[in-house]
Amino acid sequence: MRVEDEAEFRxxxxxxxxxxxxxxxxxxxxxxxxxxxxxxxxxxxxASWSRVRGAENxxxxxxxxxxxQNKNRFRRRRVVEDLTAxxxxxxxxxxxxRVDQRAGLLAALASLPKRQREVVVxxxxxxxSEAQTxxxxxxxxxxxxxxxxxxxxxxxxxxxxxxSR
Length: 165
Description:
single chain, mainly alpha, 9 helices, 76% helix, globular
């Protein structure tokens, strides 16, 4: 890789790291897995930097890599996780209602099936259009619409979301 390309990649990573980790947290439900997933995705981005840089939308290309890496995470090895209804308490300081709401939302997202969670993250967290979401996920716009509708209906009835109202 040329020095200019490497500098451009570093600048891209610096500007997108937080965004990628936040999206990965929403996909995985775990901060540790999210950082690993974001790092693995950026390794893939680096390996194909010439294609990523030439893409019409670099962020969408990167998000597609992140989604694929999340899928691959389960293909390689199964890790049995016991997800609880509420995250464990963190030490130090009182929790604010905003933190409680966020924790409830993360718990509700974790309860969604993988495809619905991907659609919700891309459509409502990352603010991609239905067409962009469909392109990133490799499905039809109709699938995005139906999965979003089902996911939102399920989120509306989730106990942690109801408790934060």
